[in-house]
Design brief:
Length: about 300
């Protein structure tokens, strides 16, 4: 029902990908095109929000509140869903009201969202129980969804990516920001090898985020995060990465951007060249969307 109301195109296509990159071990590459799920709630946004929105609807929620930065794909996607579903939306944004609005915050405003700016220190409290209780007292009717939508309900939605796959793969790779996507994939299989590409400087921290969401992953030996491809940190990039994104987007029938998918594809190119994957491995890249962020 929700899927139809929001016009989500499922399942997303699984396509083979044949770049002219060095590939000494003859691996086969594929892409799961979650970027095609929807123009606004693309990629992992739909996967993470699906059951959160279903729960809000089941509770007949009239108000949703969530958190994000000035460029948050999550706030953007959730704001759009709320406007379509006629639900009031409050966005707690890390930033200052006097700053010019980013294109995504502008969209949110146009969709009727209430933007509530908080400074860094206040934003840091976004997972603390006292702060959440204060917010709930200020907005008693609000259903609060965490930053990035990453909670238990998100894991269930993300696991559906794996359940949708038409073929078996030796490796599945995805970008890792808050860990929800990786944590969800790990609930779906303890056999397939998963590799997460950290998009920020988050060694140990990102692993903790994943195992906090999915404690069973501590015992699984089918995953690893690779921390050498963040290009300086979250939303940071290098001329090399920008050039790479542009070339891939020009030479293939899909686009990538430098914050998430660009780092994933760049990492894959390097790993292939190094012979990281055993001979003839079948490797699937999860395109998690986020192209609106490139604005
Ligand atoms: C487009 C895109 N891809 C990947 C990610 C990383 O996913 P996660 O935060 O679940 O690790 C995000 C952030 O949620 C995102 O917006």
């Amino acid at each position: 029902m929700l899927q139809q109301d929001l016009s989500i195109q499922l399942p997303s296509p699984e396509q083979s990908f044949n770049p002219t990159w060095a590939n000494p071990n003859g691996c086969q590459l594929y892409i799961k095109r979650d970027d095609l799920l929807h123009p606004v709630i693309s990629g992992n946004k739909w996967r993470k929000l699906k059951y959160n929105l279903q729960q809000a609807q089941a509770k007949q929620a009239t108000h949703i509140l969530s958190f994000g930065g000035n460029y948050s794909n999550h706030l953007h996607a959730l704001g759009w869903c709320c406007s379509r579903l006629n639900i009031r939306f409050t966005a707690i944004v890390r930033g200052y009201p006097e700053q010019a609005l980013t294109p995504m915050l502008n969209d949110l405003k146009n969709w009727g969202a209430e933007l509530h700016f908080v400074d860094r220190n206040t934003y840091r409290q976004r997972t603390e129980i006292n702060y959440l209780q204060q917010l709930q007292a200020t907005y008693p009717d609000a259903c609060i969804i965490p930053e990035g939508g990453s909670n238990q309900l998100a894991l269930k939605g993300v696991a559906e990516i794996y359940q949708e796959l038409e073929q078996n793969y030796d490796y599945i790779l995805c970008p890792v920001g808050s860990g929800g996507t990786m944590a969800g994939l790990l609930t779906a299989s303890d056999k397939t090898q998963f590799r997460g590409i950290g998009v920020l400087k988050g060694e140990a921290y990102l692993e903790q985020m994943i195992t906090a969401l999915n404690p069973a992953a501590i015992e699984q030996n089918n995953w690893q995060l690779l921390h050498q491809f963040h290009h300086g940190g979250y939303a940071k990039s290098t001329p090399e990465l920008l050039d790479f994104c542009q070339k891939v987007s020009t030479n293939h029938p899909f686009s990538i951007e430098p914050v998430y998918s660009g780092k994933l594809f760049y990492a894959t190119k390097q790993l292939l060249a190094q012979g990281y994957f055993p001979a003839h491995s079948r490797v699937l890249l999860l395109h998690t969307g986020g192209l609106q962020g490139a604005r």
